[in-house]
Amino acid sequence: MESAETAADDPFVVHRNLLFTVAYEILGSAADAEDVLQESWLRWAAVDRDRVATPKAYLVRIVSRQALNHIRSVSRRREDYVGEWLPEPLLTAPDVADDVELADSLSIAMLTVLETLSPAERAVFVLREVFDVPYDEIADAVAKTPAAVRQIAHRAKDHVAARRPRVTVVRSEHERAVDRLVAALNTGDIQGLMDVLAPDVVSVADGGGKVRGAARRPLIGAATIVRYLAGSLAKVVGTIHATATTINGQPGIRVELDGQLAGIVTVTVEQGRITRIYSVANPDKLGRVDHEVTLER
Fold it and tell me: What is the distance between the terminal CA atoms of the chain, rounded to a whole angstrom?
């Protein structure tokens, strides 16, 4: 009993959800984040705890450093990826949305923007903007001087600001757009689908080269997307059913084929209409949408 209590009190166990969130935000992959946590645990196990003044901050630095190393090692793998690469979606509790900044940083749309940063820029941005880590601690995590970190943070913030959705949408408006898309998908209402899509909407699909019908390049324009979707659905043998859910802190859609998970869809919304569609169908990326993942900062 005593050893179990000791294990439960270990700072790594206490802060595990936070550490996973840090790694996931930097990597965009739950599988890679779990690998980073395993590597970080081994390093933590070898540390003299008496010499660690603030275990939480120390662990965040370890995980950040390992995540930075990991993202550099997997960059080639992502370059060779078949089709578009999207972050791995997570089923999250609706209350994640109560922390608006965390929910925004976790959205598939935002994580996709972070993919355009260099590894160092991404780590610095996440640690500073999402977790409010002091510059000197970030410097230690990324092996830079505090002055260099401030410059990187400024550059990364400007880069993200130029690419992130410019309109802040209240959750109820986001949910209404998702509900309209769900209804259109389930009824085959082409006009309803056209009505909820912005004329210049962009659709990005990630099938990893393993899913028939997943476009390997972004589709642009409501008419193009509806035509492609109608053609793809016409070839499907079985029953497609969509339901609203919460993905990465945002309203999302779970798509099933004959009761089996087929994909996850998230969207961005402006003025009540969908401007971006992110569809993940690669089965290797759908392992975290059946059970809620606890995220925190």
Answer: 30
